[in-house]
Amino acid sequence: MIVSAITELRRRYESVLERLEAACLACGRPRNDVALVAVSKFCSARAVSEIAAAGQADFGESYVLEALAKREDLAKVPHCAGIRWHMVGHVQTRKAAQTAGVFALVHSLDSVRSAAAFERRLLVSGSRQAVLAQVNTAGELQKSGVRPEELFALVDYITEQCPHLELRGLMCLPPVFDAGEAARPHFARLYALRESLRSRLGLALPELSMGMSGDFAAAVAEGATLVRIGTDIFGVRSENR
Ligand SMILES: *Cc1c(COP(=O)(O)O)cnc(C)c1O
């Protein structure tokens, strides 16, 4: 990476931190209520290393193989040793074996089938995996995520049948990208679902993963504890590799 690109990357990162702080301030939440997950899909290991050097610890990836390769690339870089890798993309059931036990948090658990695949794998390795249930807050408009009416059944399944899965909360990915306030009802819906799970099942479910580059301020106002930001840190991705 050339020096000006590194400077630009750092500048963008600092700007996101400032805007996140402002978003917390605006709704009266302490800044440390909200963790920033830097979404580095399609970005180089070098770019991840630069942001890690600036103090970022949580990184999110969408593709299992890409995440594993990047981790491997950075394994020997001392200041990257403490990185917590998050899986934010859809995990196909057949990839569960490679995913289980590898990530600090899997944000995208969205079916009983997938939970069962994770549990089978974790039973063999003896490790545990923290997960969020990804909720389809938009019904028909959206493909990934469990429908709200099926969420309780999924949560029951995880808590009763999957002792190696630790359900930490909920995640959503509204279909209205970069729409700022337009995504807000989806965030409010996720919050309300979490509250109803809490009161029905007595679970803590401390995490709400919601908000991306275009809408994280609205998500913070609606109670996000994890915001997943890619473009505003790393620049526009070319996804058609
Ligand atoms: C790519 C991605 C993000 C980051 O989106 P940006 O708009 O680039 O900030 C967040 N969450 C998920 C699930 C993603 O796939």
TrEMBL record:
Cytoplasm keyword on record: no
Gene Ontology MF terms in the entry: pyridoxal phosphate binding
Modified residues annotated as N6-(pyridoxal phosphate)lysine in this record: K41
Keywords: Pyridoxal phosphate
Signal peptide positions on this chain: none
Pfam families: Ala_racemase_N
InterPro entries attached to this UniProt entry: Ala_racemase_N (IPR001608), PLP-binding_barrel (IPR029066), PyrdxlP_homeostasis (IPR011078)
Cofactor: pyridoxal 5'-phosphate
The Alanine racemase N-terminal domain, residue ranges: 34-237
PANTHER family listed in its UniProt record: PROLINE SYNTHETASE CO-TRANSCRIBED BACTERIAL HOMOLOG PROTEIN, PYRIDOXAL PHOSPHATE HOMEOSTASIS PROTEIN
Role, per record: Pyridoxal 5'-phosphate (PLP)-binding protein, which is involved in PLP homeostasis.
Homology family: Belongs to the pyridoxal phosphate-binding protein YggS/PROSC family.
HAMAP family in the record: PLP_homeostasis (MF_02087)
UniProt protein name: Pyridoxal phosphate homeostasis protein
